[in-house]
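Quick one, T. Sequence first:
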Amino acid sequence: MSFFEPLPSPPQPSERRWSPPAWDRPSEGTLPATLAVDALLSQGEDAVVTIPHFDVFPNGFRINVAILVNPIRAQDTQARIRGGPMGMPRIGVRFADGRVGGREVRRGRLDIQKDDEGVPTQPFVGFGGGGGGTRPGGESSALRA
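Structure tokens:
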């Protein structure tokens, strides 16, 4: 005799749920390979901007951008930094074959040129994540290009 009663059977899935296209975000359920970069992009009295690392996924990569703001000037500095789309700094990439992504200012993922199967015809740079604050360790992310 068992102490616990048997669990009921899980319900059968009724229909397939919506899922994002593979190009829209990093591969879900996949741990990325991490590539250390440690690049200093900008250093001044107001802030330091670095790329500590890239996260590489089967369908793209994430550029992790860390912005460390001088706490004495935090309010003014953050207002100047957040000049890009959705309050993020603008980030772009150039591949070895000459393709670029992130140069255009887009309103969203819907206005990206796609082929007949719905896959973007050019590198796509999107934004996700964020957070942090004025303390070390706050990171923002640009997705896949």
